[in-house]
Design goal:
By secondary structure, this protein is of the alpha+beta class. Helix content is 49%, strand content 18%. The longest helix is centred in the middle third of the chain and has 25 residues. It is globular. The chain starts with a helix and ends with a strand. The chain folds into 2 domains: 64 residues, 434 Repressor (Amino-terminal Domain) (Orthogonal Bundle), CATH 1.10.260; 60 residues, Cyanate lyase, C-terminal domain (Cyanate Lyase, Chain: A, domain 2, 2-Layer Sandwich). A two-stranded antiparallel sheet has the order 1-2.
């Protein structure tokens, strides 16, 4: 019996390893980016019924698990403490070191507001470099100004 969305994430991750699947292949079948599809498979986005059924076939999920893929998840998968996984910690480090700079530059360019993580896109690519390959991450979020009332 599945008690919450994280149970389905566990099933997906286990099937991905067992079947040697690639996120990009699943995303192609779903018809969305590998970034969004991966986030959805890991429990951070909601699939439509048609998308959930495709994902269910890839991972051999039960009808109950496919139904859970269509439930709006509790977003935010990281614990509130500083993350210990080295890759995720580096993102935390980037925000710790450059967060105030990003905030300052966005406010200077756009005014008082935020960059949306709802109306948002991301692209992650390998960038060849003679000193060692680089990770190229492009993020684009809609600017949402604070309003006066």
């Amino acid at each position: 019996m599945i008690t919450d969305r994280s149970d389905v994430t566990t099933l997906i991750r286990a099937a991905k390893v067992r079947k040697n699947l690639k996120w990009a292949d699943i995303a192609k079948a779903v018809g969305l980016s590998k970034e969004w599809t991966t986030a959805a498979c890991l429990g951070q986005m909601t699939f439509t019924k048609a998308q959930a059924e495709i994902v269910g076939e890839f991972f051999e999920l039960s009808d109950e698990a496919v139904a859970w893929l269509q439930v709006t998840p509790y977003k935010g998968s990281l614990p509130s403490a500083v993350p210990t996984d080295p890759l995720i910690y580096r993102w935390y480090e980037i925000v710790s070191v450059y967060g105030t700079t990003v905030k300052e530059l966005i406010h200077e360019e756009f005014g008082d507001g935020i960059m949306s993580a709802i109306d948002f896109s991301m692209d992650i690519q390998r960038e060849a470099d003679s000193k060692g390959d680089r990770v190229n991450v492009t993020m684009s979020g809609k600017f949402l100004p604070y309003k006066s009332y």
